[in-house]
Amino acid sequence: MKLSFTTLGCPEWDLDTIIRSAAEYGFDAIDFRGVGTEMNIYKLSAFSDSAQSTKKQIQAAGLRVSCFSSSVQLVSIEKFGDYLAEIEAYAKLCALFGTRYIRVFGGKIGDRDRAEALQAMVMHAERMGKIAKEYGAKLLLETHDDWTACGEVKRFMEQVDTEAYGVLWDVHHPYRMLGERPETTWEALGEWIDYVHVKDSLLTPDNPRGYQYCLLGEGDVPLRNIIEVLERNGYNGYYTLEWEKKWHPDIEEPNVVFPHYVQKMRGMEQEL
Predict the structure, then answer these.
(1) Angle at 180 (CA atoms; ends 100, 259), nearest 5 degrees
(2) What is the per-residue pLDDT across 242-253, written as a single tens digit (0 to 9) for each?
(3) Does domain 2-271 have CATH number 3.90.79.10?
């Protein structure tokens, strides 16, 4: 079982702290979703001018980069040019760091007809996918926003180059938002699932979101069932903790959550 975490969970940490803590807590890799206040890490010196040095620092700690998590929304028409440039910047980093994956979103469709939105996504995906493949990278559509339901993601995947695209199963969203059972998600998307985001929560009606993120195992997301489905079907990708501290500063600190995650996941690994 390969464990990673997104840097969304430690917005106050500098790069040295991220790398040192990842190794200390027993992670195998890091998924970069911003460092400090900069979400587009290719703009940072550590991932441009000093990228080779950063690569060596990560390798020296016994770690890898599991994914570069972008802000790209495939459905967007207005920002298509910007997103093409973002994909190329991350694809170049993939080539340098020996990383296969770039996370992308479907995005909100607003008042557009869903069929029209899907057509736009597929059209944009073709251009972006060609760029990613030039650098040996693969784009992963996350089960998120208006593309959470497995059926909607499946319709997209059936129309794109699956050498350029895979699925990032954020196990929280389909279950919490739609009540989608893990077996249902896997049946629809399993052949394309390359990467997994893990988080737990509890329903809390007084919370504006309707739920509260919590430590792994303290919520009611059926994580053991999800992991059993993945392992039974031969999944060998990363289990990546996505702790949204950047967006929800009230939740637990990373120095509590990260080592707890590793402990719980290693425990489940032994029990399976």
Answers:
(1) 55
(2) 999 999 999 999
(3) no
